[in-house]
Amino acid sequence: TQLLEQSPQFLSIQEGENLTVYCNSSSVFSSLQWYRQEPGEGPVLLVTVVTGGEVKKLKRLTFQFGDARKDSSLHITAAQTGDTGLYLCAGADDYKLSFGAGTTVTVRA
Amino acid sequence: KAGVTQTPRYLIKTRGQQVTLSCSPISGHRSVSWYQQTPGQGLQFLFEYFSETQRNKGNFPGRFSGRQFSNSRSEMNVSTLELGDSALYLCASSVVLAGGEQYFGPGTRLTVT
User: Fold this and answer.
1) Residues B33, B23: Cα–Cα separation, whole Å
2) N vs C: which end of chain A shows fewer Cβ within 10 Å?
3) pLDDT band for position B39 (50/70/90)?
4) Distance of alpha carbon A109 from its chain centroid, rounded?
5) Are A88 and B43 inside 8 Å of each other by CB?
6) How many CB pairs under 8 A join A and B?
């Protein structure tokens, strides 16, 4: 059983459309990190959110941390083919980082 | 600054054999964590080393072990390989211990036949 549940598991959209990926847990985290992984490579850190209710924007990507610090979302506006990849959320506590199973996003040209 | 490097990138072993994987962290990073990634289980935490000491361990059998050297480089060893050990093994380095932002290497793809 994953400590962090990500949904949806798979997402396929047309270039230019918007998408949202969700990351939910029953546990409280001190911070939540989002990573993107492309085939044949390791995950790359996109952002870290720390404060409940925090919203961070990275160009067309918007990340939100829930008020209770148990959940998060990633919204991509006007998706591009370069956004294709596996999106992973990871929650940090005092001991380690726990990863969700990931959302595979495919953006079609 | 050079990124995290892992060697070898690909490895094919037979059941029952043992394997050692190597990881060189980003200069200045003292924490090194190891993860196993499979299609069915996702990214699973193996263990974390900080200043040559194992600080935390995931839920894996004792066949999985590791160590860290004084220069922060780390090795991971798997003994008595099983078919289910086939996976991408990722190493990540971090400035801080326990939950810090992870900088991943490209991984070692291990196939057990």
Assistant:
1) 10
2) N
3) confident
4) 22
5) yes
6) 62
